Each structure stands twice: as structure tokens, then as C-alpha cells.
């Protein structure tokens, strides 16, 4: 065991807890993108004190970016005493809304019973804080290390990452030779390495109709009824077919080893602008459905889309006046980093050192910012590893364990030692 390095992490436990609580106190709720700038500036100031050179990059023109809600990212870099590879820790600073059901203030950073509570504690401000402490402990223990360490706090992961990692990747921040290895401290449990994620296709389907008086619906064409036919066909044909598809990818939880599709939303006809009055008597001439299709490494994106469009085309042939449009909102291919990749082996050594056992290798059911590192940065030596229990994310009374953060920081510090100095000792 690397007692010096582990001791350096343990000595910073109070700092780790305080940093996590401080980050939680920035209500970086997305949407709309609250408090991004002050949170990024706080993190940048903390890293600057450690000797990092910091940059603040706004993703102007990205979805949601405005002067009121600027998509501000911070990237910090510390160059070692001699040339070598660069290890980048990337964490998103945005969180989802708090919602109801909390027994503590979701943005107070409450510390009790060995846990830090708050929205984003698990997903993923605890992981961000652990990566900072891991880097600090490593730098203090081995001040003559070669290579470079980067730490970033980025925007909008919860809404696709387009104002965060995607924007930075387009600018070259996640490509060689600038960066060689990327660790994303998402909450996938402290003894597991996440190699990647399933694919995703978001799309919007719109059925068409013709407006008419609601007392004479036979004079119009009801778009909501057409969408009902779409949903019925999905229930009878598509969902059973998806449930039969299984993957070799080690996706967790078990249910996500199948193909899935979620109906995100459905809207049709008159808006709710009439409330608290009464609606006008109209036949709806439009209806829109948003789908969230998650697919497997064994599936081709063209086939995934064809399963949906095939149903729509069949309805167009069989159903009188049926017409539709379909619009792609986002598509990301499945990713799975190989187990013999350098960053995987380095973090696996850290888990062996800390927990005295081999890690579990898993795949995330949903995507995260690794997708942009791969598809835009063309950098594939990337994993997710961090403290926290994924099942707690986005829930009331979200928390991260202090002991889990300390142990994960030790794993990350060993990973740095392996990737930059070539040793665990």
C-alpha cells in the first residue's frame, strides 16, 4: 500500500467534506442553468491556489446559453516538472431541480452521520471534490511528477452536455496531444469502473390532423387519435421486440441489459393557456410525442430508427388520413472502453490497492459526457469512476458518504501515480 499517498488523502478529509458542501451550496439547477458562473469561479479560485492555470470558457450559442444563464465552464491545468501524458478529471457542475420530499435543505450542504446531503452531493459534486483532493494529495506527495493534471467543471451534462464537454471538445480540449487520459467521477460506486454507456436516440414524432368544431369531429381529423394509434402499435409490436434484445455489455442494473424506449412526453391540441377557464371546442390538428430510445452495442442506429419509422409508414398505408413528421433531437452511439486501456488498468490498480479486490466493470444505462470525449474529441481512453450510489441521484435527500469519497480519492490518486509516474508506490 502507498501509505504516504493514502495518508495525504486522509489528512485532507475535512477539506474534502468542506469542498463538497461548498459546491452543493451553489444551486446550479439545470434547466435553466442557475449559478454556473459563481460555481465555476469558486472552483477555479480553489485550483489556482494549488498552482493550476485556469481558463473560463463560455459556450456562446449553445442551447440555453444567454446573458442571464451563461454556459460557463472552467478548465484548470498543472504542468509537472518534465514532459509526460496528461490526465484530465472532468465533472459536471449542473444539477437537476431539487423537487419535493426533502427532510434537509437541498442546497445547504448538510453534514451528518458520515454523509454530506444535498442536491448534487452524489451526482456529482462529491466526485468533483474527490478528484480535487486526489490531485492535491498526489502533487504534495510527488512534487517532481512528470506530465500534467487537468481538472474541469463543465455545464449542462444533465441536458446533454452541449454547453459543456461538447463545446470544449469541439475546441480541442479533449483531444491528443493536449489530453491523454480522462476520468469522469460520476457516481457508479467506489469499487466499480464504468467503461461506457448504451446508445441513445431522442426523437419527436408529430401526427397531423385538421381542426374543426368539437361538436362535429367528423368534419375534422383528430391528430391525438392518430397518435393513439402510434402508441398502440408501439405497445403491441415495438416494446415486446425491444424486450427480447439482450447485450453482452455489463450494463447495470440488470433490466437495462435490454433495449428500452421511454415515452418522454406527449402534447396535443390546445395548450393549457385557458386555465383556469374552459377549453374551446376544437378538434386537435397536431400531436407531438417525444421518445427516448436506449440501444445496445449489438444494434445499428439505422435499424433502431427503422423500427420506429417502419411502424409509422405502415400506419400511413393502413390508416385513413394518417400523416406524420419525425425529427431527430439527439443520437449517440454506444461506447465501451476496452479493459486493457491504460486508464482502466490504472484505476483498477487503485481499486486493488484500496479494496484488495478486482473491480467490477460496468456500463451505464444512460449516457454521460464520455460520449462527447469520444465522438468529438476522438479520445477513447476514458472511463467513469467516482464515489456515490447511482440510485441516489436525482432523488430527495441525495447524499454521498464521506468514507466513500476518501476511498475514491485514494483510488484516483493511485490512478494518477500509475498514469504519470508508472508505479503504484
UniProtKB/TrEMBL annotation:
<dbReference type="InterPro" id="IPR010182">
    <property type="entry name" value="ArgE/DapE"/>
</dbReference>
<comment type="similarity">
    <text>Belongs to the peptidase M20A family.</text>
</comment>
<keyword id="KW-0862">Zinc</keyword>
<dbReference type="Pfam" id="PF01546">
    <property type="entry name" value="Peptidase_M20"/>
</dbReference>
<dbReference type="Pfam" id="PF07687">
    <property type="entry name" value="M20_dimer"/>
</dbReference>
<keyword id="KW-0378">Hydrolase</keyword>
<dbReference type="InterPro" id="IPR002933">
    <property type="entry name" value="Peptidase_M20"/>
</dbReference>
<dbReference type="InterPro" id="IPR036264">
    <property type="entry name" value="Bact_exopeptidase_dim_dom"/>
</dbReference>
<keyword id="KW-0170">Cobalt</keyword>
<dbReference type="InterPro" id="IPR050072">
    <property type="entry name" value="Peptidase_M20A"/>
</dbReference>
<feature type="domain" description="Peptidase M20 dimerisation">
    <location>
        <begin position="196"/>
        <end position="318"/>
    </location>
</feature>
<keyword id="KW-0479">Metal-binding</keyword>
<dbReference type="GO" id="GO:0016787">
    <property type="term" value="F:hydrolase activity"/>
</dbReference>
<protein>
    <submittedName>
        <fullName>Acetylornithine deacetylase/succinyl-diaminopimelate desuccinylase family protein</fullName>
    </submittedName>
</protein>
<dbReference type="InterPro" id="IPR011650">
    <property type="entry name" value="Peptidase_M20_dimer"/>
</dbReference>
<dbReference type="GO" id="GO:0046872">
    <property type="term" value="F:metal ion binding"/>
</dbReference>
Amino acid at each position: 500500500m502507498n501509505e504516504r499517498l493514502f495518508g495525504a488523502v486522509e489528512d485532507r478529509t475535512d477539506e474534502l467534506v468542506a469542498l463538497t458542501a461548498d459546491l452543493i451550496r451553489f444551486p446550479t439547477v439545470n434547466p435553466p442553468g442557475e449559478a454556473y458562473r459563481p460555481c465555476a469561479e469558486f472552483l477555479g479560485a480553489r485550483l489556482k491556489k494549488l498552482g493550476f492555470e485556469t481558463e473560463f470558457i463560455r459556450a456562446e450559442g449553445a442551447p440555453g446559453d444567454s446573458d442571464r444563464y451563461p454556459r460557463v465552464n472552467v478548465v484548470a491545468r498543472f504542468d509537472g516538472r518534465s514532459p509526460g501524458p496528461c490526465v484530465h478529471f472532468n465533472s459536471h457542475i449542473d444539477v437537476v431541480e431539487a423537487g419535493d420530499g426533502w427532510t434537509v435543505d437541498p442546497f445547504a450542504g448538510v453534514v451528518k452521520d458520515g454523509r454530506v446531503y444535498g442536491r448534487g452531493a452524489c451526482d456529482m459534486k462529491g466526485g468533483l471534490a474527490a478528484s480535487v483532493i486526489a490531485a492535491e494529495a498526489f502533487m504534495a506527495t510527488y512534487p517532481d511528477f512528470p506530465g500534467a493534471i487537468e481538472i474541469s467543471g463543465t455545464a449542462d451534462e444533465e441536458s446533454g452536455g452541449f454547453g459543456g464537454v461538447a463545446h470544449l471538445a469541439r475546441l480541442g480540449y479533449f483531444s491528443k496531444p493536449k489530453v491523454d487520459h480522462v476520468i469522469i467521477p460520476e457516481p457508479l460506486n467506489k469499487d466499480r469502473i464504468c467503461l461506457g454507456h448504451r446508445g441513445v436516440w431522442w426523437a419527436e414524432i408529430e401526427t397531423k390532423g385538421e381542426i374543426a368544431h368539437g361538436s362535429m369531429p367528423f368534419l375534422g381529423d383528430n391528430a391525438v387519435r392518430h397518435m393513439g394509434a402510434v402508441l398502440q402499435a408501439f405497445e403491441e409490436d415495438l416494446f415486446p421486440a425491444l424486450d427480447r434484445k439482450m447485450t453482452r455489455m455489463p450494463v447495470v442494473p440488470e433490466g437495462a441489459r435490454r433495449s428500452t424506449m421511454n415515452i418522454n412526453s406527449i402534447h396535443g391540441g390546445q395548450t393549457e393557456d385557458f386555465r383556469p377557464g374552459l377549453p374551446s371546442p376544437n378538434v386537435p390538428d397536431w400531436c407531438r410525442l417525444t421518445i427516448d430510445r436506449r440501444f445496445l452495442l449489438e444494434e445499428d442506429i439505422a435499424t433502431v430508427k427503422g423500427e420506429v419509422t417502419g411502424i409509422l409508414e405502415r400506419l400511413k398505408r393502413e390508416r385513413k388520413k394518417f400523416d406524420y413528421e419525425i425529427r431527430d433531437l439527439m443520437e449517440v452511439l454506444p461506447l465501451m472502453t476496452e479493459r486493457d486501456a491504460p486508464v482502466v488498468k490504472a484505476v483498477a490498480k487503485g481499486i486493488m490497492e484500496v479494496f484488495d479486490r478486482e473491480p467490477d466493470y460496468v456500463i451505464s444505462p444512460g449516457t454521460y459526457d464520455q460520449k462527447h470525449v469520444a465522438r468529438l474529441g476522438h479520445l477513447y481512453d476514458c472511463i467513469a469512476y467516482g464515489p456515490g450510489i447511482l440510485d441516489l441521484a436525482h432523488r430527495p435527500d441525495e447524499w454521498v458518504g464521506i468514507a466513500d469519497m476518501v476511498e475514491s480519492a485514494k483510488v484516483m490518486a493511485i490512478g494518477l501515480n500509475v498514469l504519470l509516474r508508472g508505479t503504484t508506490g
